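Q: Hi! First time doing this. I have a protein sequence and I read that you can turn it into a structure. Is that right? Here it is:
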Amino acid sequence: MLSQAASPAALFAMGMSVNRYGVLGGARSALVIVGAKLILLPLAVYALSTWVFGLPPLWTGVATIFAAMPTGINAYLFATRYQTGVAATSSAIGLSTAGSALTCTLWIAIAKAASR
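A: Yes, that's right. Below is the predicted 3D structure, encoded as structure tokens:
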């Protein structure tokens, strides 16, 4: 029963953090994190899976889309645990969740075009 409360408790703590720091708390760091997570990481995964490992297009597409997902709550949990970058991390989670709607669409289009 205790383990079932972990995810809701983490999301509640995340919401309180966003309320405390605002959506743009640590804006410069958050934007760097979001850019790296939504653009650079999927690009690296796509390049490695295509040209280094030679994976089939379906596997490359799946790996790229997984890499393009927004920043997860674990980053916030580590930031609060070590008491560093909490504002930037909470902002990055919110911004990457909003931005992933656009970038995931872009990466899906790239994966679809590459599979042809």
